[in-house]
Batch of 2 targets.
Target 1
Amino acid sequence: MKTLKQPLLAILILTATIGACTSSSNDGPAPVEVVRATDIQGNTANSPGYTFYDLEEGVIVTDTASAAWDIGFSSTTIIANSGNNGGIVMLNIAFDALDEAPTTGYVNDNNGWFTYTGPAPTGPQHAVLPNANTTLVIKTPSGKYAKVRMLSYYLGNPDTSTEAFANLQTRPAGRHFTFEYAVQTDGSALFE
């Protein structure tokens, strides 16, 4: 009787282990967390070039030759680390509605994320405003996908409908990027 219990126990443990492995592999893509980066300063007259950012770590990167950075910010240009197999693509779809990254079409940079108002007859003049329902998708050098929603080009993410913003004398400094993003860490293209 004693010898019968041990093999039966081993079979039950093996069955439970296989069942657990099977169910966890069919759970779908890893959940993505939306992160906000605030006031990432792009280039200025005193610091030409780009500011590079690592989306997975959420930090500014100073080693520009490495594969550690994913996205770079200049005046109004946003680039991806395409020299290390990354890239960027702009989609006319809301950030929250984007469930899957495209697998093709990635390029080095994107300038279509904003509207420049110029000498607008109404609203703020000479302002850089992020386009609504525009999502940038980044393919990172490590082969992961991230989606990015640009929120503001100005220091402090100000309300662009106020008189203080419309007045060029009281408008906060530009080239301070605030954006939200989500990285799919499991390597799939799904953001669900």
Note: The CA atoms of residues 111 and 156 lie 22 Å apart.
Target 2
Amino acid sequence: MKVHSSKPSPSLQAVVRRFLIVESSEARDDWHLPELGLTAAFRLSGECLLAGRRLSSRAILSGLTDHVRQHHHSHDNTMLIVHFTPLGASAITREALDALWNNNTDLGDVLGGSSQISEILERLVCAANHAQRIQILERFLTARLAAHEPDPLVQAAIDWIEHASPAARVSDLVRHIGLSQSALDRRFRRQVGAAPKRFLSLLRLNRAAQLIRSGKSLTTAAHTAGYYDQAHFNHEFSRATGVAPTDYFSREKC
């Protein structure tokens, strides 16, 4: 397997966290913990199965999820993946993103132009190299930005969540933003893809996983990420992945 990772240009850094091009020389399976932003995936060659099912389109947008995603890649599969920031996907579409919770959809349906996505796919396949593919996709995304502005209150809520104490709660966020919880929930779900409480849970899970990958113990990772104790973290992690943390991260090293 070859993985080409690229950071976005400065004009897209608020929207895209990174671009990945993954080439599979042989059939393989992989698992991905829940992300904090939506992902767009372009299948340039071969096949990719999600949880044993063939992807519905060659270009899809996947919503936030509360469980691990399992992919099976064929031996000749090449995927170009866009990892959006928490508000990144809302910057290119007016669709309500909470409809994609634990789901995915044809990217053309979300952006209102299947023919345009087909054209982009063709250009990506025919590009001379990966750098050119990233440039094609960056130009496409940049052109979409002009018509969409993220909700400033939702952006403020995300900024607060990302910099708050690990022990922070939604009630603290509501007081900080100054909206009722129901009003904040509606705006947040539409542009982020999940309610603030769920987003907080995903953030803690991601932080704990990063700490474990960096060599921290399960107990230290759980406490630092904001869990009550290791038992609470073990329960939440197993609910998301179906396996204990020790088993999951041992599998990642294989």
Note: The first strand starts at residue 2 and ends at 6.
